[in-house]
Amino acid sequence: MFHVSCINLVSYLRISFHFVAFVHLVVTAVVTLSIDTTVDADPRIRNYFYIRWMLLTCWFNLIMLCYLPIVIYCEWNSCGLGSGGRKCIPLLKKIADVTMTSVVAPTTFMADIVFWTTMITNPEMMAPPKLFDYLPYWCQHSLHTVSAVVVIGDLILTPRRRPRNLAPRFTIMTAFYLFYLIVLYINYLNGQIVYNAIDSLPGSKLRTISLAVYTGYVVFFYLQWMLIDLVWR
What we know:
The chain is mainly alpha-helical. Helix content is 75%, strand content 0%. It contains nine helices and no strands. The two termini are 24 Å apart.
């Protein structure tokens, strides 16, 4: 009976953690996406009303908006609180697990570090400085600090097992990163500069930065599995 109670308590803790994270992300999304930069006199600022959908921060936070309800639903049914639809739970868990460990976790860690490093050293490499006046400062932390805390909490709280072969997930991670680079390049060809660095730095430096970011992806990909092994071995 005590063992069962502990299991239910941990399940409730997971549900509560993911629910709070989801509500926080919804509030952040409503606030940030309702900001209208088209009223600015600077055409570069006005353009960000559309460019924001190409930002990596937007991508991984939108993925999290889909991921969190799925894990809440799965946990809710797994601990006997839900009714019906349980046949799809294993598939949903698999999709959520692959999404988190292949895309969300390495992308969130790498993007958050790159963001704050650039903000401290040279924010103009990301966007015109005036753009940051439109976004409340707490939103920056919600998008680039709380995001990493939520991912770490998820890796610790959600049961996972290292697959026998990490190659498929590594391939998904690499494909996601390459796809994003292609999107940036296509936008550049169309005159849409997603990040100022793309237009201000020479091609050789951009290639070096891209390789460095990918190296960070690889490091965080394996670090997350070290954490998972440590907690869930």
